Amino acid sequence: MTSLALFMTTLTVVQGQALQVGYPNEPGLQAIMVEFFDQRTSFVQMDQGWVAILGVDVDAPAGSYSADISFAYSDGRQQSRTQMIEVLSGNFPTTELTVAPGYVQLSPENQARAMLESQEINAVYNEITPALYWGESFQVPIPGAVDGRNFGHRRIFNGEPRAPHSGADLSAITGTEIHASNAGKVVLAKDFFFNGNAVFIDHGLGVYTMYLHLSKILVHVGDFVERGHIIGLAGETGRVTGPHLHWGARILNARVDPFSLLPPSGDNAKGD
User: Fold this and answer.
1) Which residues 6+ apart lie within 8 Å of 27 measured at CB?
2) Taking the chain, what is the end-to-end CA distance rounded to the nearest angstrom?
3) CA-based max dimension of the chain
4) Please, are residues 238 and 195 in contact by the beta-carbon 8 Å criterion?
5) In the 3-class helix/strand/coil scheme, how is 4-40 assigned residue by residue?
6) Is 266 left (phi over 0), alpha (psi -120 to 50) or beta?
């Protein structure tokens, strides 16, 4: 994950990317809050300073945006500053897919089910846990995976345009063990119409990862998992063209490429 210091210059980030921002420790500084794209979250204090995680949605128009930063001090002082963030256009090609007709032309029953499930998922994303659950870098949920570079692709299902792809599809045969990308709390673990068997993990600070189309779920809602914990087995449930893992990420409700959560040093397999 790219890490940049506040107020040094205009920060630059590509559509659909995660961005870690930092601020140094100051005597008496008790709290820092940030508001970006109408989402508000807190910084957390670490040894090296204060850190927050921001995300730019894949559909956010390119351009300049402001992040409003507020500071609270132990002597009662309040301070506000603005950080400019430049969003650059991503390069997202179009992918045409063929799936079972029932996943494109939905029956009234399936339409109602999909709508209720979408509301359930969005309600989870709107909950921002102020705590930070992880202490290590994020990792790919299938060790050694080198594919999954289709985030943001504009998808056409059976000839009909749909929303851009909001995750990375990792090749996996049915039964492949799926590992949690980082420590966090399981907030959803069930079968969905489009997503199939799915696990959603809250990592804190508005950061979520999700693991879709599983053949089997091995965790329950409320479980706290560590980085690398086996949470399920790959499969082909839901709207799929074959067995694989859909690995996704949200930051403050922005759809971001989960690979952008990984360290820039390339400690995790990312492919070319």
Assistant:
1) none
2) 17
3) 63
4) yes
5) EECCCCCEEEECCCEEEEEECCCCCEEEEEEEECCEE
6) left
| Residue 272 confidence (pLDDT) | 32
Block mean pLDDT (10 aa), the chain, length 272? 78 93 93 94 89 94 95 96 94 76 84 95 94 94 86 74 81 97 98 96 97 98 98 95 94 95 62 34
Query: What per-residue confidence (pLDDT) applies to 149?
Result: 78
Amino acid identity, residue 178? I
Q: What's the CA gap between 55 and 151, in Å, rounded?
A: 14
Bridge-based pairing state of the strands 244-251 and 207-217: antiparallel
User: Do 187 and 209 contact (CB within 8 A), yes or no?
Assistant: no
What is the distance between the alpha carbons of residues 15 and 256, in angstroms, rounded to a whole number?
8
- Hey, what domains does the chain have and what are their CATH numbers? 3-88 (2.60.40.10), 94-261 (2.70.70.10)
Does this model's pTM top 0.85? Answer: yes
Neighbour-count burial of 9, counting CB atoms closer than 10 A to its CB (0-12 exposed, 13-18 middle, 19+ buried) = exposed
Residues forming beta bridges with residue 79, ordered by sequence position: 71
